[in-house]
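debug: dumping io for the single-chain case to check the tokenizer round-trip. Nothing else runs in this session.
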Amino acid sequence: MKYEKKSKEELKNEVKKLSEELEQKLESLFSSNEYVEFLSVMAKRPTYSMHNNLLIYMQKPDALFLAGYKTFLNTYGHQVQQGEKGVRIFAPVLYKKKKKDQDLTTDILPDTKEDNEETCVAFRIVRIFDISQTKPVTIQEDGVETISPKAQKLIRSLHYITLSDIYTEETELVKTLFDAIYQVIPIPVKQEDLSKNLGGYFSFSNKDDLHIVLNSSFNAAKLLQTMFHEWAHYELHNPFGLTNHLTKNASKYDKEIQAESISYVVLKHFGFDCSSEALKYVAAWSSKKNTDDLKKSLMIIQKHLPL
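debug: decoded output
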């Protein structure tokens, strides 16, 4: 089939239509189960924007590894199979245009050059593919057909951590993560005997004594989950922090869903599933929110993932 180049107006309408589909999907995320499913997709691709993660979720939520047609072929040694339909996402396009408000009365020195252009960003739709839609490129080696070195390298790198239940007994992975977090978290973490219904809290009453307190009666897996939750509060909702201006007007519900969502995505990224705990937060939160609130929180969550 011959590819027919689309006009500028057709491309513009295509972007508009896909943007409208995004807005409609955002509204359906108020279903708590679906919201957590979307966070699972975000956990696999923390470097993708919130909007592109949502587009991937809409079109291919089970995707494992995504790349463009040429990237798969030239970098990873995989050929996209004939007839496969790519996942549409937005890609930024930089362009320059003349500044509108120039001071034409200003004298310009002969040896200077005025910069009368500004860089702007637009978006176009591109298609990416999942590894399940490809086949490794093969080569002939000593008369035997074998997978190309590039394809072998990619396949060896795609060893995903087996999912485990966050509430199971302590594992070496949990302990390893604990040790790593203690090395990088910027405030002290203490353990105290707290109420059985309280996993922990972020203490910010004194700007010179910011710290996290965890319930010493909880097992290591539950403590790990709580630590990520409270760490997110420190990064996002710390009244003395650099990002406080982004969330200072957020409600208690907004702050809790942001912290729990970050905790869920990070743990999911490392192979732990704590969906049941995240659902408790989402169920209470979603009934009080509108689409704009959800979009704002999702963008904050994606931008501040510690991955």
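debug: round-trip ok. The first strand starts at residue 66 and ends at 67.
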